[in-house]
Amino acid sequence: MTVQSHIAALELRHKDLESQLEAELAHSSIDEAAIVLLKKQKLEVKDELIKSQTSIV
Fold this sequence. Notes:
With about 55 residues, the protein is mainly α. Helix content is about 85%, strand content about 0%.
């Protein structure tokens, strides 16, 4: 996998996590544990994305 395709995959995963988070927040019965997990995963993906982007510069 090239760095560019890895970055594209991370961006897609980040958007997917954002969509899941928005859907979870839209429910009338909010699952705090699920929200915390999604936010953590999203942050981890964002960190890896930034690391990957800076490695190609």
